[in-house]
Amino acid sequence: MKPFNKIFSALAVAVALSGAVYAADQGAQIGHHGGMHGHGQPSAATLGLTGDLATQWDAINTQEKALHKQEFSNGASVLNDAISALNSPNVDLAALAKQKDAREDDRRTQERALRDQRLALYKTMNATQQTAVRTLMLQKLTTMQDHVAQMQDRAAAHAAAKAQ
């Protein structure tokens, strides 16, 4: 294999693994969408929340949706900026990496703040409401586990086909 192909393959594997780790981390956090963009948290009504709990839960959902909408709308410009930078012969890869890290740190800080709000709210729920939250989390994690298993099966089949 050519050196460039080895580097590209290693980079692709690193990106895929980091995505899987990120998704698993997100699935383990109350207050996040289980690492599956676009699926969001259930409504307060779905969880059987009423009154102030419902208002607070749905307010956190609204903040979370706004954060993801902002991430999505910024994604194209971030990607275009990275492509432009990489097309430059004098690109500073370390600076590019630091910019990416800063964006990720900012996003994670905002997501953690939402998670912490949800955790505080969870503590105020009664046992039935807490069970509803945990049940939905388990359903999301089980679905994620199924997706990971499917990806692993596809990767193994691809590796076996490539080895022949």
Automatic annotation (TrEMBL):
<feature type="signal peptide">
    <location>
        <begin position="1"/>
        <end position="23"/>
    </location>
</feature>
<protein>
    <recommendedName>
        <fullName>Periplasmic heavy metal sensor</fullName>
    </recommendedName>
</protein>
<keyword id="KW-0732">Signal</keyword>
